[in-house]
Amino acid sequence: MMDKIYSKAAEIIVWLGRESKDTDGVVWLHNHFIPKLRDKLGIQPHGFQESDAVRDLEPYHCQELGLDSPTLHAQSYAEFCQRSWFSRVWIVQEIAMASRIKLIIGNAPLAWWDMLNLAYLIQANRASIGHFFKTKLRVPNLSAAPNLDVARLHQAQILCHKGRESIRFTFQQLAGSNTNGAFRAIFLIMYANQNRICKCTDERDKIYAILGTLNYMFPPETENECFYPCYDHTIETVFSEAVCWSMRHAPLLLTLSFVEERSRRKVKNLPSWVPDFSTNPCFSVLALRGIYNAPGDHLSTTIVTTISFPALKTPGVSLDTIVATVGLDLQVVGGVECVLSLCANLNQTYHNGENRLEALWRTMIANNCVVNGGVVCPAPRSLAHSFQTWILSRVMLCKARPIYQDAQALFLAINGQFEKSGAIEVAAKQVCGTLETLAATNETPPDMPSLEEIKHLVCFGDGYKKVENPGPTYPSASVFNNLLQRSAEFDKAFGYAAHERCLYMTREGFIGLGPLSTKPSDQVWILQAAKVPFTLRPMDKYGRFNLVGETYVHGFMNGEFAGAGTPQGWMEIDLV
């Protein structure tokens, strides 16, 4: 009903609430500053986000343009972004399907496009204007608020206005089918994941609030494709029904990739393979990148999964058992050492012919990165240099004195040429030897260079010069910023891939990136109906497992697993 009302209305009027102490500043930002900035820069309202002129905009640039700085009203904007309307789950459909939107705060109108433009301005200038908004006034979620709320609404609007044809190919790849039912199934689950960040008084609306937009984008063609709300059902039942309905229409098990980190689950009695949509979204979903196909030629595009609730029966093949895990919080003392030590425990030459240090950095970014707006896999070899400086930047970010104790080993590990024979072996032995010495004596080696010297060596390429009495010196801000810039390419890729994940090593010496709650004795499986592998936790000896989450296993993401060479290698397992 509401989808028809919103989509056919001439205009949607949104009242954002009563006037408050933030109103004047917010009205000035939207109705005066942004329009004048557009006029000064010669930008149309709809072309703001495509213009390079609004990037790297410093407060003093505004003064040069004859404009007051927007940072004068940062606190007003911070309070404005906390208004409940922005995060309500039910507003998505009214904004997404509206042909025209009119916003009102108190009695003052606000232009929808200029609200989007202001949010984009802050997000695009996080190092200047956005930085002031975020840090000077101590409102840490300010730059996230417009990005996750206003921009999220804008993306929903773009999607609905472009129509189903704009996403048909993508959905076909994700669903493994081009039927209307499969598109509806993928749309429901993907937007249920996005709606996790929204607020509602009834968690069942995390699913039901999508149905209007779903029916608008992909109207049901048969009764079997319909999904109806029922408030007589419990939250557990609603979430489970939505997932089961999706799996019955889409051959590929994309839904399993939306299962969140286990420590975040709130709703009890959900099967491990059903996402808990009451928690925050899964921001880093490997399956959505569209670059992996772990089963290779044996990927099933027909439904091979059966649901005998609460069990999900699906064919899979075991890759290996996990024997060690390492967290990826590399800003704490010991973080870098643990990661390099895990690498040192791998064979010097990885099974695909790469050296183990290359296997490490490729795993840490799931072997992909974004270049010119597109996903590149495998990641370019040039990222190795960014990784070297990135490792050093992690060391510098640590504040405690013990980070100096393994500086020499780290220098050898990150500054050596990867292609030199024996260089990785030397680096790995140095890391392990240093760690063993530190664990035994807890003393700083007498010939250890300071971080200032390591910084100088790596940044400017001077030869190694031993210094006497190395003190706890810190790099200058300019040098440190230079280091961060040089490592930014790897840092961006790592930030996406490593979110809520840890490194692990398997019994056969494979390295992977799995859910944060992964632990030794968990197993890595390739499922015939899923493009990415999964970490599973054995429940008994009869083939029953808990799903831990999707995983990246270096060297096994595109059909390389020999055990999948014949259909006889697959066995049916139960996820419970």
Tell me about this structure.
This protein has 576 residues and is an alpha+beta fold. It has four domains: 2-162, no CATH class; 164-307, no CATH class; 313-322 and 499-575, no CATH class; 335-489, no CATH class. It has 21 helices and 14 strands. The strands form three sheets. It has a five-stranded mixed beta barrel with strand order 5-10-11-12-14. The protein has a three-stranded mixed sheet with strand order 1-2-3. A hairpin with a 5-residue loop joins β11 and β12 (544-550). α6 (112-124) packs across α8 (144-162) and α9 (168-175) packs across α10.
Jot down its keywords.
single chain; 576 residues; alpha+beta; 5-stranded mixed β-barrel; 3-stranded mixed beta sheet; 21 helices; 14 strands; 39% helix; 13% strand; globular
Compact overview of the structure:
The chain has helices spanning 2-8, 23-41, 59-64, 74-81, 91-96, 112-124, 129-136, 144-162, 168-175, 180-194, 205-208, 211-217, 235-249, 335-344, 356-364, 383-397, 407-415, 423-441, 451-460, 477-486, 488-497, and strands spanning 12-15, 101-105, 108-111, 306-308, 311-326, 369-371, 374-376, 501-506, 511-515, 523-527, 534-538, 544-550, 552-553, 571-575. It has 576 residues and is an alpha+beta fold.
Walk me through the topology.
Blueprint: H1 2-8, E1 12-15, H2 23-41, H3 59-64, H4 74-81, H5 91-96, E2 101-105, E3 108-111, H6 112-124, H7 129-136, H8 144-162, H9 168-175, H10 180-194, H11 205-208, H12 211-217, H13 235-249, E4 306-308, E5 311-326, H14 335-344, H15 356-364, E6 369-371, E7 374-376, H16 383-397, H17 407-415, H18 423-441, H19 451-460, H20 477-486, H21 488-497, E8 501-506, E9 511-515, E10 523-527, E11 534-538, E12 544-550, E13 552-553, E14 571-575
Parallel strand pairs: 1-2, 12-14
Antiparallel strand pairs: 2-3, 4-5, 5-8, 5-10, 5-14, 6-7, 8-9, 9-13, 10-11, 11-12
Helix pairs in contact: 1-12, 2-4, 2-6, 6-7, 6-8, 9-10, 10-13, 14-18, 16-17, 16-20, 16-21, 17-18
